[in-house]
Every structure is written in C-alpha cells, then in structure tokens.
C-alpha cells in the first residue's frame, strides 16, 4: 500500500522492495529504529525482478565452504525467528536430492558440504532411486540428500516481512521511482518522481537496477533474464506434491550447466529452470513485458524427460526471473566507497533468497552500527565489498 511521503528526515531508508530490502526493513523495525521506511518503484510483490513467485529452495549444499557456513545461522536463527514473528510456516519440509556428473564441479559441492559439517547424506545411485523413484540420476556416481534443505514459501515470506514491518512502524512507499541518489548531501537525498526524501542512512537493494542508481557497480554486474517453467507430469497430481516430489539440483561437469527444480506449490506443475549466470550479454531490466522464449522451455522439458522416470504431460506456465550476477556469483554487500552511511546489496546471482532474513539483518546492522554481528558474514565480508 502506498503511504504519503513523510517530510521529516528518516533514520534509515531502504531502496528496493525485493527479499533483501524487505528483510532489511524488518530488521530495522525489530531493532527499534524510527522513522524507517522502504521505497519501491513498483507495487510490493511485483513480477519484474528477482523475488516473485511461490517458492524457492533452501539448502546448505554449496560448492564453496564459506557459503555452507553462512547458511548455518540463516537456518538456525533467522528463518525460525521470522516464522515465529510471522506466526506461520514459511519453510515447507521437503526431501532433497543434489546430483551431477562425476567431475570437479559437482565434487566441489560434495567436498564443501563435508568439510563444513553440513547435515548431508551421501547415497549411491541405486539407493537414491529407492528414495526418489521419480528420478533416474543419469551419469551420477553420488547423490547428496541435504537434511537442511526444503522449500521456502517465497510469496508468503515477502508478505510476512512487509506485514510485520508495517505493523511495527515501518513505512512502505511503493509506486515511487527514484531518479537519483545524492550521496554527497547530509542528510542523504533521494530524488523521486513524487518528491525528495531525506535520510541519515540508506540501504540500496534494487537488484537488476543497481547499475542505474549506483553507476560505479555497473561494470561488475550483468543482468540475466531466466525462464522458469512449470511442468505437469503424467499420472496422478499427488506425485508432484511436496510430500512426494523433492527439491533438487543438478550440476554437470561443466559449471555452467546447472538445473534445479521444486514440487508443485501454488501452481499445477513442478517448477524447473536452468540456473544460467554465464551469458556474456547483459539483459535490459526495463524490458518489462518481454515474451517467454519457448525454445528455452523446450530445452528444459527435454532435460526433464531425460532425468525423470515419468514423462512431462504439458507445460503449465512460465515466468521470468532477473538474475543480477557477478563474475564469481559472490554477493556485493557492504558500505558504499563514497559514503559509509550508504550500504549496498547487489549481485544475488540467483542464490540470495535463501539467505534473505540473515542478509537483511546484516544490512540493517551495517547501516546503523557499521559492523555485522554475524561471525560467518564477517569472516567472508572482504569478498563482498562494493569497491
């Protein structure tokens, strides 16, 4: 809901109403700071960016041991805290399987999960087929069953963050486009199409629009428009439900071939897409109504027909998701080099949603206190600097 602009100076403003922006507003309100607010160009829950849709995967299986460690406080502390505050279940228990061709790409996931002590179980393909009879596991020598994995009720999470924040004093200024950020002003100024806002501190979390509002970061970021499909399988609908269909992740020996999928949830078909961060070209986020590429859906359907023991009956729907990617898929998260009272979050690279409540806490703490209280983040914070 759009609220009138407050003429007073904000304690902290958040720019961007995706998962990281809403999570930052949630933590600012939890910390008791007032007045705080969030500015969003579109309406909350819009489908133009990276945070829409009914579901996401949560997992600890990563090819980088630092991210395995970073996931632990998210699973242990922040998701449970958010569910308690929201008064509803946001993580749906779902079985999981992570597999790939034998080689350095997939083996990196196995080694990192093992080294970090993640709660994962190794299965050989025959054992895996007994646990997951809908999957063939072609070419796999090992299948990981991640006992921390599950399915995030993504749209419910977004609604819960917005609802709790507004109930506890956070302001949401949606349908408000920011034209410029005046970093050298004190207080900081946001020039919008509905007037000028003033704030002592600013968190910028605008995803694919980061390069336009923080030009110094544009060379580090590429925007890739992903095509997500929903596929109805042959046979009874129950086989696609969370009770029977796992969240899954497939890595080919070449790192740029990755697919993932989730059960049917809020739609008639299982969700499947290729995780593509390697395209040399960058898409224009202003192309808001770009049509679905049917050839991508056909390729994804062919992948499912090869990897599942049941055939795809029909394509049940499709949507776009904008990835904002760095070259190594590390996040960009830290103080702006020209003004330490401005904190930037970008480069989610298609894997930030699961960290959302944790990174929202980090953003709020960095903006207000200049340092995060999350040791796992501090241990790798030099990797994330927006310089």
UniProtKB/TrEMBL annotation:
InterPro entries: FAD-dep_OxRdtase, FAD/NAD-bd_sf, MTOX. The keyword Oxidoreductase applies. Its EC number is 1.5.3.1. Its cofactor is FAD. The keyword rRNA-binding does not apply. It comes from the Bacteria. Keywords: FAD, Flavoprotein, Membrane, Oxidoreductase, Transmembrane, Transmembrane helix. One of its GO terms (molecular function) is sarcosine oxidase activity. The chain crosses the membrane at residues 12-29. Residues 13-366 form the FAD dependent oxidoreductase domain. This is Monomeric sarcosine oxidase. It comes from Kolteria novifilia. The gene is soxA.
């Amino acid at each position: 809901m759009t609220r009138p602009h407050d003429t007073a100076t904000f304690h902290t403003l958040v720019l961007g109403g995706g998962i990281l922006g809403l999570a930052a507003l949630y933590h600012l309100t939890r910390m008791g700071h007032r007045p705080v607010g969030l500015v969003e160009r579109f309406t909350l829950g819009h489908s133009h960016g990276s945070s829409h849709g009914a579901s996401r995967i949560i997992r600890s299986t990563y090819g980088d041991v630092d991210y395995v460690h970073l996931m632990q406080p998210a699973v242990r502390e922040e998701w449970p805290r958010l569910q308690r505050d929201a008064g509803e279940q946001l993580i749906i228990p779902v079985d999981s399987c992570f597999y790939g061709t034998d080689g350095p790409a997939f083996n990196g996931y196995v080694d990192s999960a093992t080294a970090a002590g993640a709660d994962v179980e190794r299965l050989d393909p025959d054992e895996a087929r007994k646990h997951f009879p809908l999957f063939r596991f072609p070419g796999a020598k090992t299948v990981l069953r991640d006992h921390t994995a599950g399915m995030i009720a993504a749209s419910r999470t977004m609604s819960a963050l917005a609802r709790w924040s507004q109930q506890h004093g956070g302001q949401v200024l949606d349908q408000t486009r920011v034209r410029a950020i005046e970093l050298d002003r004190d207080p900081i100024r946001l020039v919008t199409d509905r007037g000028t806002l003033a704030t002592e501190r600013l968190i910028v979390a605008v995803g694919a629009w980061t390069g336009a509002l923080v030009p110094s970061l544009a060379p580090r970021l590429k925007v890739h428009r992903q095509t997500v499909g929903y596929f109805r399988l042959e046979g009874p609908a129950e086989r696609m439900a969370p009770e029977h269909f796992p969240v899954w992740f497939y890595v080919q020996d070449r790192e740029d071939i990755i697919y993932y999928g989730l059960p049917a949830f809020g739609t008639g078909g299982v969700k499947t897409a290729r995780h593509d961060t390697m395209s040399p070209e960058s898409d224009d986020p202003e192309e808001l109504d770009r049509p679905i590429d049917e050839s991508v859906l056909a390729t994804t359907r062919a992948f499912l027909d090869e990897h599942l023991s049941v055939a795809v009956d029909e394509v049940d729907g499709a949507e776009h998701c904008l990835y904002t990617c760095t070259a190594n898929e590390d996040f960009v998260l830290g103080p702006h080099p020209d003004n330490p009272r401005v904190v930037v979050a970008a480069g989610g690279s298609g894997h930030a949603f699961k960290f959302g409540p944790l990174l929202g806490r980090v953003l709020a703490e960095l903006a207000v206190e200049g340092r995060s209280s999350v040791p796992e983040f501090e241990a790798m914070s030099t990797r994330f600097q927006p310089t």
